Amino acid sequence: MKLLCAVGVAALPGAMQAHAQHTSLLPAVQKIAYGAGAVRLCDLAVSDNSDADPQAVASLRAMLIEHCGTRNQGKITVLFSHSQTGEDLPGVDDHGGQNGREWYSLSIDASSVRIRARTRAGEFYAVQTLQQLVEATSLPQVEIEDWPSLPYRGLMMDTSHGAVPKIAEVKRQLDLLARFKANQYFFYVEANLKLEGYPLLQQPSDWTKQDIAEIVAYARERHIDVVPCVELYGHLHDLFRQEKYSNEAALRHGGEANPAHEEVQKLLDDWLRQYAAIFPSPWIHLGFDEPFELERAGSKAAGGVAPDVLWLRHLQHMAKLASDLGKRPLFWADIDEGAYIFNKYPGLAAGLPKNAIAVPWLYDARPSYDNLLDLFAASHVPILVASGISDWDNIAPDFDSTFTNIDGFLAAGRKANVIGLLNTVWSDSAQALHREAEPAMAYGAIAAWQPQAVNRPRFFAEYANLRYPVPIASDIAKALAAIENSQSLLIQALGSETSFRMWDDPFHSQTLDRAKKNSKALRDARLAAEEAIEALVPADSQSASADDKSDVESLLLAARMIDYTGMKFLYAAEIAELFDGLNDHPSVDDMHYLKRETTARNHSRVGDLLDLSAELQQQYRAEWLKQYKPYRLQTAVVRWEAEELYWRHLQASLWTVVADFKQGDPRPTLAQVLAVR
Q1: Is 527 in a helix, a strand, or coil?
Q2: 92, 283 contact by CB (below 8 A)
Q3: Are strands 76-82 and 384-388 parallel, antiparallel or unpaired?
Q4: Which residue of 1, 255, 319, 612 has the fewest CB atoms within a 10 Å radius of its CB?
């Protein structure tokens, strides 16, 4: 077969035409050359080479059983080989490129399928690519050489702020990440991992050592390192709300440690030792983001030490302890967000521990991310950039902002020679259900592997084609694009943080005024959400597997919640207009018309909102319990209950006002009706 050609260089018309005839690969491979023929899938057999990567072999065999049945007697053996052992997971100081440990080649011709790799990890990634190459019942003849553009490609999952995922959900995320060639899973905990000696902190939902061991083993099989992402400075309210520890915070019952306090330093040292023992990863993320409270408390809380001096001193101490425990430390670097620590104190960069990795984080969608990393690059600090999946404070993932953030911040990172990307998933709203954000999880892994930017206009279609069977793939792609559009329109209409805006009082003067001014955007958001629903309903009925059906149900919930939110604020504006349209002294018939249009038992605006909020509460509860532990479920559900009570109160109040209304009475205002108890 001809010499490999880089995809980005294959500009000849014939080459481009041949490439266009085949399935798109995610992530795109570094070099690829297609031949003219194809190999029947059911002609393949898997080598019994016991030294090959077990998960790669198992995945390939499962694919052949799915397509060909258990009696497959292939005549072409898939051969595996790798040249190095003992480097199956990311190390302390990996590098990318053709000489990196994750390099592989894949050759398919009429008589053989050969996978060559530097390590078993490369064999595993070669099989992920091979599975994507399947076209109906065959594989194209092809030569591929591939390696990651960045050595570290991670996802951080917040398991503390909101719903606590089940182990099965974590494994599902690991499967997704492995499929798109991520190699790190940052496991974010604050005080919800059961450590020895802290019974006051324990909750039924806490992670145990056995839980972590099970997750670590599952991830290792898929060449993913589980990195502890902990908090050893701020975000420790679950500790300091206990009276026993309240004095060790910068502010009593606050959320930030005062490391000048001798007892808190002993406690954090103990935590770090326990974390290092529980997680075998060679890395440990120390936290250190958003140190607000010491600045609020003033230097008095730290014995006269300035906040920046104390922050750096504490980081140096914890980083040295981490190194002594055989771990490479990472830390959040607030730049242009959070506590703006490096904006306020740029001199910190020069004093950072030399072995520590800075993790600048920025989750906004911006036209430019230039110069944000200059401070760290100038100080020769190793950098792992952290992007954010914008679903922690939105009803559905804001894919538009998320993809802009990943693309832009990663591009800036490449210019600053970053060592990797950490794509973060937060649960701050205590409402987000992250299953529907899986396309964005995949997007981050893809963006960090391939050297070129992800093709955003084609991403949903290509992702769905690789992830779902043919009968439903196009419907899911259409639904994802519609959800992206509807979420963006809802932000335009109501403002950012739609998961909070959803619960706003719709008759508050400013909120009502905004709804009236943005009625078109609200209507368009509903139309887009309903477009998603129209695509997902048939996909739901055609889903052959429980996993596919579960995915569709999660997306359906997201679309329906957006549709409900748009309806709520459109209806509020219409109800207000009906009140404003009354004469100064309306007739009894006018009042009964108002009641019928707004609050009738059924087929009215409030009737709709009562029905739908009740139904969505049940769907939301079911989706939560499918993915997460019951802990904090009621905290989320109480919002739905309050929503139902709000509309029931309006209904009952207006009924009372109409029942008491007499001919000649002045018209009641909406505010007067809402005040009735």
Answers
A1: helix
A2: yes
A3: unpaired
A4: 1
Query: Is a pLDDT exceeding 50 seen at residue 535?
Result: yes
The single-letter DSSP state of residue 211 is H
Q: Assign residue 497 a region: left if phi > 0, alpha if psi is -120 to 50, beta otherwise? A: left
Residues 244-285 pLDDT 10s: 999 999 999 999 999 889 999 999 999 999 999 999 999 999
Three-state SS for 79? strand
Give the whole-angstrom CA distance, residue 493 versus residue 487: 10
CB burial of residue 182 (10 Å; 0-12, 13-18, 19+): buried
pLDDT tens for 50-101 read 899 999 999 999 999 998 987 666 889 999 999 999 899 999 999 888 999 9
Average pLDDT of every residue of the chain: 94
Pairing verdict, β 420-425 and 384-388: parallel
Q: Say which amino acid occupies 23.
A: T
Interatomic CA distance for residues 663 and 180, integer angstroms: 70
Provide long-range contacts, Cβ within 8 A and 24+ apart, for 71-75.
Answer: 72/42, 72/44, 72/45, 73/45, 74/42, 74/43, 74/44, 74/45, 74/46, 75/43, 75/45
DSSP secondary structure letters along 175-196:
HHHHHTT--EEEEE-SS-B--T
Residues 446, 456: contact at Cβ < 8 Å?
no
Rg of the chain on CA atoms, in Å: 28
Structure tokens at 77: 């053996």
What whole-number distance in Å separates Cα of residue 637 and Cα of residue 431? 9
Cα distance between residue 351 and residue 479, in whole Å: 49
Long-range pairs for 610-613: beta carbons < 8 A, 24 or more residues apart: 610/644, 610/647, 610/648, 610/651, 612/560, 612/564, 612/567, 613/564, 613/640, 613/643, 613/644, 613/647
H-assigned helices in 8-53: 13-20
Average pLDDT over residues 422-430: 95
- If you search the block for the tokens 């329906």, which residue do you land on? 560
β-pair type (76-82, 225-229) = unpaired
The backbone torsions φ and ψ at residue 263, rounded to the nearest 5 degrees and listed phi first, read -70, -40
Sign of the alpha-carbon dihedral angle for 188, 194, 195, 201: positive
d(CA 142, CA 157): 36
CA 57-62-66 angle, 5° bins: 150
Tokens at 58, concatenated = 């198992």
Beta strands in 509-591 (DSSP E): none
Handedness of CA 569, 572, 576, 581 (dihedral sign): positive
Sheet holding 138-146, edge to edge: 31-40, 138-146, 104-108, 113-117, 76-82, 44-46
Burial of 93 (0-12, 13-18, 19+ CB in 10 A): exposed
The pair of three-digit structure tokens given for residue 437, joined into one six-digit string? 């954000």
With beta carbons less than 8 A apart as the criterion, state whether 178 and 442 touch.
Answer: no
pLDDT of residue 69: 86
**Strand-pair category, 420-425 with 138-146:** unpaired
Phi-psi domain of 567 (left: phi exceeds 0; alpha: psi -120 through 50; beta: other): alpha
Beta bridge partners of 257: 249
Q: Is the pLDDT of residue 7 over 70?
A: no
Tell me the HSE value of 585 on the side-chain side, using a 13 A CA sphere. 4
Check residue 452 and report its DSSP letter. Answer: S
Contact between 259 and 310 under an 8 Å Cβ cutoff? The reply is yes
> Residue holding tokens 């182990």?
167
DSSP assignment of 551-563 equals HHHHHHHHHHHHH
Query: Is 0.85 topped by the overall pTM?
Result: yes
Task: Compute the distance between CA of residue 500 and CA of residue 429 in angstroms, rounded to an integer.
Answer: 8
